[in-house]
Each structure stands twice: as C-alpha cells, then as structure tokens.
Design brief:
Strand content: under 5%
Radius of gyration: 12 Å
Mean pLDDT: 89
Low-confidence stretches: none
Number of domains: 1
CATH architecture: Orthogonal Bundle
Shape: globular
Structural class: mainly alpha
Oligomer: single chain
Length: 83
C-alpha cells in the first residue's frame, strides 16, 4: 500500500521493500524490527537510502526512538520542519 501523494511515506516504503525479503504489508503501525525482522545494520542501510533520496540527515538519537513505519515518517516530517 502506498500513497503517491506522500513522497516521504513512498520513500520509506521503497527502502523497506528493498531491505525485506517478504511481502509483509506495510502501514504506519508496522513495527520495523519485530514485524520486518530487520537487524540494526539493515535498519541503518535503509535509513541511509531514505536520507539519500530525501536529501536529509536523520540523527542517530532520533532513529533510536523509531519503532514503527509511522514513527519514521513522523520523524522525517519533524526534521524537515526543523530544517
């Protein structure tokens, strides 16, 4: 599921799908570590992809607070506003 009117969410979904081998349905409540089974290294890899695509930097302390896809989208939006 993807909302093409939301480039941030689209970027997150693309990066996650490239990092996950299964067809898990993604939504804002999807737990990145528990449901997708990503390791810390895999999480960093897909965060780097998002940073490159959206031309921003996500501080490590902010990444540590992220549990779900929705958390990550909200964090990126907050960083853009802080810009």
């Amino acid at each position: 599921m993807s909302d093409s009117a939301d480039p941030i969410r689209d970027a997150v979904y693309r990066a996650l799908r490239a990092s996950v081998d299964s067809d898990v349905a993604l939504n804002d409540k999807t737990n990145i570590r528990a449901e997708l089974g990503l390791t810390s290294v895999a999480i960093m890899d897909f965060v780097f992809e998002i940073e490159d695509e959206l031309d921003l930097s996500i501080p490590l302390d902010r990444i540590a607070e992220v549990e779900t896809v929705g958390d990550l989208v909200a964090t990126i939006r907050a960083l853009e506003r802080e810009g």
